[in-house]
Description:
- The chain is α+β, with helices and mostly antiparallel strands and 624 residues long.
- It has three domains: 5-269, 7-stranded beta/alpha barrel (Alpha-Beta Barrel); 279-364, no CATH class; 393-623, Beta-galactosidase, Chain A, domain 5 (Distorted Sandwich).
- Helices cover 26% and strands 31% of the residues.
- The strands form five sheets. Strands 14, 17, 18, 19, 20, 21, 22, 23, 24, 25, 26, 27 and 28 form a 13-stranded antiparallel beta sheet that branches. Strands 1, 2, 3, 7 and 8 form a five-stranded parallel beta sheet that branches. Strands 9-10-11-12-13 form a five-stranded antiparallel beta sheet.
- The longest helix is centred in the first third of the chain and has 21 residues, at 21-41.
- The radius of gyration is 28 Å and the shape is elongated.
Amino acid sequence: MNKKANLILCASGHLPSGAGEAEFESLYNNEIKPLVSALDKFHSINLTFHYSGVVLYWIERRHPELFMLLDDLLSRKQIEFLGGGFYNPMLPLLPPADRIGQIEMLTTYLRKHFGRRPQGCWLPASAWEQNLVGALNSCGMSFTFLEDEQFLQAGVKPSEGGIYFPCVTEDQGKLLTVFPVARALGRELRQGKTLVELFEKLSQDSSCPVLVIPVGRDASSQDEKQIPFEKVFEDLSNAGAETEFSSPSRVLKNLRSLKKVYFPGVWTQDQPGKNRIHPRQFIADHSEAGNIYAKMIHVHTLINNQLRGDKTRKHTALEELWKAQDSGIFRLGSAQAPGLCHSPVRKAAYKALLEAEKITREKKKFTPSLSVFDFNLDGEGEYIFQDDKLNCCVKSYGADIFELDYLPAAWNYLDTLSPEDGERRCAFADWLAPPETSPLDAGPEGIKGGCFCGAQEYEVLETDRVHRKLAFILHPREALPWGEIEIEKTWQLKKNSLALEYVLKNSGTENNAFAFCPAIDFSFPGEGEEFIRIQTQREGGKENIVYNEAAVIQNIKVLEFQDIINETVIALEASRSFDGRIFNFRSGLSAQEEYQSTCIMPLFPVSLEAGKTWKASFSLKISS
């Protein structure tokens, strides 16, 4: 390097709304508090500070004394706050109005509590699309940050001025300055490397570079130890005259003749060793994220259509919607940064979406309905039963329920993750199995020797909107086990309940014996008696079903699931007695599997002569 380097140290962090109190305390005690305390001891060090509105609001309530220290640092012009979306959203996935609303919400919070309006914006996971320029510009943001690798992907060459120098980018006549973030250098700095060693890695052609180095925890490093901030700052303070600690706003004032660059859309994955991927591709690859995104778009449309002219309710509904737009939904997650694979994060998102939907229904009578539209944005129509308390979403593949919302509790009882097979676990997903199948043959992997019909497409026989009735049929399948068995399923929304009737027909020429199992999943807040209790009805009254990992049930017609946290009861009643198995399904990251759902696999023995039929019906009711 030929000239002095401008060094911008930055720290950013976020925990989604679904993270627990212990995770917030850990972030505060292991990173934020030591970082700010160390900074207070080294007055020559400047820091660009970004923690999401969720984290700042938690600190305000739990550790307000930190705000006093931050005020002191601000008065010394030692830190600069960055803006962004209050709930740390993946901005490219948001409708334009929500992008602006979230950014303005955090800007307002910072101005109210610290008397400063941020001039720059932090992008979660460096998720970028060129049309973000207009939204950021309209919110008063002069600059943002992208990874140095994104500069390389945009064609910036180290030999032509270096990638460690800001550039300007444009969209529809709006301009934005972009600083490159040297994330890899930041990781090495935290691991004990000195600035001299890091400078040696820079191109000798890099005249007067602007190095933006993260000093906070890197979410992609799952085993990174607590950062010794005082040691890092002490080393930095001895860097010598070749380095000047600065802030983005100060550097921006002296920048002239910046190179114009257009950046491709890209996202930094949070899993070590994984390729970079855009968030839109992430929601295509992970159906759970795709379903929440689709629900987010659906609720956004409801708010705009149903709350016109009612600014107060619309504002309240939008804040609930924005909570669900957390970037944690659009990454798998890690121990330091909970994400999609962590059940509480998804459940918090669904709860916020349903609270927003409830607001759109206030002050008017809701008429029960059956509608057909592309609910999950996959190009195919889904079938939605709705009344004042329930949303029940049925798809043609499997003709089963993939979302079951109980609005009084703002809870989706089918929020369950199954990354191993790529399919969401549903309610009333059908199995055909050998006649000798016992309850012990059923488990999280399915039924030994069975044929799963839940992945096959059922044809729609009838859509009766007036009576809220929907019928499907699975035609005989050649070359499949029990392929001559035809399955007809008829759904109907009744008063405060959902009814399902099965008709199984032997379309073959020979007698056929088999076991029929409509597997049912419900996702509760957790496992154990403090979360869920299960009862059945006997002649002498109700009887508790005790189970830890699994339980075999016999001669059952009625099951009641008591959701202790949400104070609701799910009553499942069958027209025929059955044996079966109840077990908990767990899934998630390899070393962090957690409760996802409670599965009921009822087994009905069926023996059909050629041309004969077998019938059974179920009633499903959720009440407070």
